[in-house]
Design goal:
Shape: globular
Distance between the termini: 30 Å
Radius of gyration: 20 Å
Structural class: alpha+beta
Number of helices: 13
Helix content: 55-70%
Strand order of the largest sheet: 5-6-4-7
Largest sheet: 4 strands, antiparallel
Length: 330
């Protein structure tokens, strides 16, 4: 995890310096996948770096695809970004080449989410490494990252297993969020650039007007902007780090909505998010906390029902490195 954080910091510094030195000029369009490919990283650290630059007001979301360097006019520069653009020599493309664990995690995460929805399942690290064609060290790092997101834990015998994402645990995680997240969002209010909050509000308003013609990916993006991006920007990092364990709730929605579970008939959260964002724009800290708490209380029964429906719809388990502890003897 430390190396992943360092990669995020390196990517952030690379992009920030390119902006400050004018190599990434005002109006220049930046696409996460293109930057990730150029520097040899997965999209995860690039996404985190861009989110930080967005919170600082250096980048804004482009109405098309990607982000745009803050500009005072409407001019858009779509020229491809090269190694030289980022201040790297041409032979340094891929200089931040990501470790195998970071690439593999993106592939494994969705399977672990579905395992957690099924219940308490044992994960054999050695068999998982063989299944994905990687070494034990790489798979161990993948599982450590999954642990930080609240998907798996190790028992007293150092055996991995999923933490069942059932009603009891969902309720416990929401209790944690209700205690910490409203405070985190209030503290973050002064840290997020006004332009970024404006973009969040516009996106929510447009989604409310066009629903149900909104993709599951866009739904997750709007959830992510408030509950992950804003919380990550909280100046009290102890709070944001504590909330990382609840990320499994967002991941459950990300992978099951529009797949195992149909989109809800009525808009799922747009108005509630808009109320939080509006109070953040007004810098009314007490109202931020009030609206955030109301939203979390409203969301809890919806998430429980959604995950229970997903569990019923899941296909039979077909992973050779997983043992179902709900029926097998431990």
């Amino acid at each position: 995890m430390e190396q992943s954080q360092n990669l995020e910091e390196k990517t952030y510094t690379l992009l920030r310096q390119a902006i400050e030195k004018g190599r990434l000029n005002p109006g220049r369009v930046i696409v996460e996948s293109s930057v990730a490919k150029l520097i040899g990283a997965s999209r995860t650290p690039v996404k985190a770096a861009i989110a930080q630059l967005q919170s600082e007001g250096r980048l804004t979301r482009f109405s098309g695809r990607g982000f745009i360097v803050q500009t005072s006019d409407d001019e858009v520069d779509r020229r491809p970004i090269t190694a030289e653009t980022l201040g790297l020599a041409s032979d340094e493309a891929g200089a931040f080449k990501v470790r195998s664990s970071e690439v593999l995690y993106d592939e494994v995460e969705s399977e672990l989410v579905r395992c957690a929805i099924r219940g308490r399942l044992r994960i054999n690290e050695s068999d998982a490494a063989a299944h994905y064609g990687v070494g034990r060290t790489v798979m161990h790092e993948v599982l450590l990252q999954a642990q930080s997101n609240g998907l798996v834990v190790r028992d007293g015998s150092s055996r991995w297993h999923t933490v069942a994402l059932d009603e009891k645990r969902i309720t416990a995680l929401y209790q944690l969020r209700m205690l910490l997240e409203p405070e985190a969002l209030a503290l973050t209010t002064g840290e997020i650039a006004p332009q970024t909050l404006d973009q969040f509000a516009v996106r929510l308003t447009e989604a409310a007007e066009s629903y149900p013609n909104v993709s599951p990916a866009d739904l997750y993006k709007m959830e992510e902007e408030l509950h992950i991006d804003c919380v990550t920007a909280c100046p009290n990092q102890e709070i944001s780090e504590s909330l990382k364990r609840t990320n499994c709730l967002h991941l459950a929605s990300r992978y099951v909505l529009g797949n195992e579970v149909d989109l809800p008939e009525s808009e799922p959260f747009f108005e509630e998010h808009l109320n939080v964002i509006s109070s953040m724009q007004a810098k009314d800290f007490d109202v931020v906390k009030k609206e955030a708490l109301h939203h979390l209380k409203t969301a809890l029964p919806k998430v429980i029902a959604r995950v229970q429906s997903a569990k019923m719809a899941l296909e039979p388990l077909n992973l050779p490195f997983v043992t179902d502890l709900n029926s097998a003897s431990t």
